[in-house]
Each structure stands twice: as structure tokens, then as C-alpha cells.
Amino acid sequence: MQNENFNRAISNKNIILTKEEYIGKEIIDIFNWFIHSFKSENTQQSYTRDLEEFFLFTFKTLKIKITSLKQITERLVILWKESLNNFSISSVARKLSSLSSFLTYARKRGLLEYNILELIKKPKIDKKGKTNTLNQEEVLKLLEFSKKQFQISKCKKSRTYNVWRLRYTVMYTLFTVGLRAEELCELKINSLEKVGANWRLHMVTKGNVTHSPIIHPNTALVLMDYKNEFRADAEGDDYFFIRSQMSKNLTKLSRSSVFDMVKISVKESRVFKDVSPHSFRATLATLLHNQGVPIVQIQGLLNHKLISTTSIYLKKSSELAESATQKIGFLE
């Protein structure tokens, strides 16, 4: 594989690894194979940055030019890990994960006996409570990444376009409406309705209770775009989301499929948190609360019977304000 791809990929801060100046040819070739095993450009760039940082550390700080995988020892990795003390725990975990993935790739192809990272203690990311939430920056990163994946596809009939189009619409809806995965799967074409100046999403929640919250105009737009593109011929009682956008199989989206697409999307976008579809519900509650939406209105949006249930997501209460979803400022 040509070195030019690697050199171009790791150009950063006016440092370009050329002519095996910092890394041996064997490592460059393996690096290229590893990077190009990922289809996502964002994923390639993210792994490239982390691995480049490791190789530059060994060359500049330790005066060691890595020419063979056997040179990547426990001592080198520990020294690199210790040099990252100015980074957040999640950033350190991501960087170590990148190197670990690279070594695992090499091990599975018989190029390495074992992954040295398996012997090194990884930093523990704080997991308070049963459900992890995302901050605003992580929400935007995940949504923007997912949107970019189908936008860069040149063919709307391609599998990549259809898969990421569905993932983006599903996650956008989960984030901005706060519904559960099973509630999303049960949505019908006629669940989305414009009533006067507002859009409502009719759903059946826990206990077979009907719930019709007002949703953000941008959410309605995302849903309508998906409906017009993939479900234009569907009847009102047909399921809104189907498992495949490229076949005549109209099987509804399953709860497990929603979990899978969330896990894949979070991993691909390099958001290093253990999240589930329910995390989006908790995230919406937390972000709205931080923007000053009163807890009683968040309770109504999430359709909680008890305000104490809503309080599990939150740290403090707030004063009364207008309709909860209209306060989702990060959608503007």
C-alpha cells in the first residue's frame, strides 16, 4: 500500500511523517491497512490522530523509531499513558482504545502474538446512575456525524445512504421527543399530525396510555423528510419506521435494531460513552432542565406519572416556563 495515503492522513500541526522518518515502513503499511478497514472518513481521521500522537511521542520523547510491532511494549504504552495526564479521562480512554484497536487488528491477522494493551489498566470513565447522559457537545457531534454520513453518499439508492438516513432520523427523534425505543417502533404514519400551528406526535406509552406531546418544528421537518422520501406511499395505519428502506419488506423497526443503531452510531462518531436509546431520553430531560424548563413540564413531556421519576434525571428544579420542546435551544 502506498505511503502517500498515510502521509496525507497524518498531516497535522505542520508535522508530516514522510520517508519513514518517524515510523518504519512495516508499521506504515499495517497502519494503512488498519485505517482503510473503516469506511467512515471521520473514523479514519480520529484513529489517525490518536495513533500519530503515540508514534510521535515514542520518536520525539523516547527517541525510539517504531519499525516493528514488537517494539510496542508495555513500558512504552505506560509512559505514553502517563504523558496524557493533562487530558480528560474520556480522552485518555479513547486514545488507549485507538492503540488497542490497532494492535488487535494486527493480532487477528497473525502479525502480533498478543495485544499488550490487555495488560494495561485503562482509566475508568465515571458511570453515575443506571443511564448515562450526553452533554450538548456530544449530542451535536453525534447528530452531525450521522447526518454527514448520508449526505456524503452520492447515491440515494445506496445502502450507506439508507442506513444512515434511518439512523439519523431515529436518533434525532429520540433526542428531541424523549420517547422510549419501543414507543418509537410503534409509531404509525398518522402518528405525526399538525394541529393548528403546532406539530404533535401521537404515541402509546407505558400502561397503554395515549400521549401526544407537541414536538419541535425541526423534529417535525426531519420526520416529514424521512416520510416523504421512504414512506410516501404508506397508509395512515402503517408503521412509520421500517427495518429496511431498500426492499418491499415492510417489517417495523424492532427495539433491538434501535439499540444496535445507537451503539454503532455512538462508536462510529467516537463519542466514548456507554449509552442506550434510553440515554437520549435522560439527555433531553437534563438539557431542558439546564436551559430553565421547569421540572413539571419535563415530567409532562416524558409522560411520567410521578415527578420523582423525572427528578432521577435532574439535579435541581426550575421555575415555570413555556412548552418544554420549544425550549430546545441547541436545535436552532
UniProtKB/TrEMBL annotation:
InterPro entries listed in its UniProt record: CB, DNA_brk_join_enz, Integrase-like_cat_sf, Integrase_catalytic, Integrase_recombinase_N, Integrase_SAM-like_N, Tyrosine_recombinase_XerCD
- Ranges of residues in domain Tyr recombinase: 129-326
Residue ranges constituting the Core-binding (CB) domain according to the UniProt record: 25-107
Protein known as: Tyrosine-type recombinase/integrase
Which CDD domains did the record assign? DNA_BRE_C
Cross-referenced Gene3D superfamilies, in alphabetical order? 1.10.150.130, Intergrase catalytic core
What's the source species for this entry?
Answer: Silvanigrella paludirubra
Kindly list the biological process annotations in GO that this record carries: DNA integration; DNA recombination
